[in-house]
Amino acid sequence: MIRGEDDLKKNSMGLTEADGIFLAGGPGDAAVCIRTADCIPAFVIHSGELVAAFHAGWRGLAEGITDTLGTLIGEEGLDRRKISVWAGPHICGKCFAVRDDVGSRFPGHVSKDGRLDLFEVMKDRLSRIGIGKDMVRLLRKTGGCTYENGNYYSHRRGDTGRMLVFAIQR
Ligand SMILES: [Zn+2]
Q1: Which end of the chain is more exposed for a tag (fewer CB within 10 A), N or C?
Q2: Which residues, 6+ apart, have CB-to-CB distance to 103 below 8 Å?
Q3: What's the CA-to-centroid distance between 117 and ligand 1, angstroms?
Q4: How far does the centroid of ligand 1 lie from the alpha carbon of residue 59, in Å?
């Protein structure tokens, strides 16, 4: 999956130009992969089954990728109370300085010194589609912030490399 102009695509296997993939009926034996460097790689689990993966950057969140997710969840008739969302390594709210044109798209989420916490924004957006904030969690042992941890690629730090974050249904 490659970050592109489209937001969340349904059942598009293979290398897809999209910010996310929705897997009606589960992934089977396929792995899903998200490329990131600072944005949030997010995996959506319903009753133990991987149903979606998406790349949560400020642009996708501002343009409503979670609304698309909500629509697809509705189409599939999934129970939102049984959905959890897991976030991989990303830039933290102390490091992500944003310009006013970006910050103005997230009223109430920008600190006085112009920092945006993408994870908090994602939790807020997901709560609007019926996924409780307590059901949106960080994957353990991720090594923290991509900007601060030199083992990660960070777009903000000037890296051109990207991380590949995989999920496989077991
Ligand atoms: Zn940080």
Answers
A1: C
A2: 109, 110, 114, 116
A3: 10
A4: 19
Query: 116 is written with which tokens?
Result: 């945006």
65: enclosing H helix or E strand: helix 65-76
Architecture in CATH of 8-91+119-168? 4-Layer Sandwich (3.60)
> For 123-169, what is each residue's pLDDT tens digit?
999 999 999 999 999 998 778 999 999 999 999 999 999 999 988 88
Query: CB–CB of 23/32 below 8 Å?
Result: yes
pLDDT, tens digit, 9 for 90 and up, residues 77-136: 999 999 999 999 999 999 999 999 999 999 999 999 999 999 999 999 999 999 999 999
For residues 143 and 124, give the distance between their C-alpha atoms in angstroms, rounded to a whole number: 23
Question: Could you tell me the end-to-end alpha-carbon distance of the chain, in angstroms, rounded to an integer?
Answer: 20
Residues around the ion ligand 1 (C-beta < 5 A): 92, 94-95, 145, 147-148
Do 55 and 104 meet the contact criterion of CB atoms below 8 Å apart?
no
C-beta separation of 71 from 34 below 8 A:
no
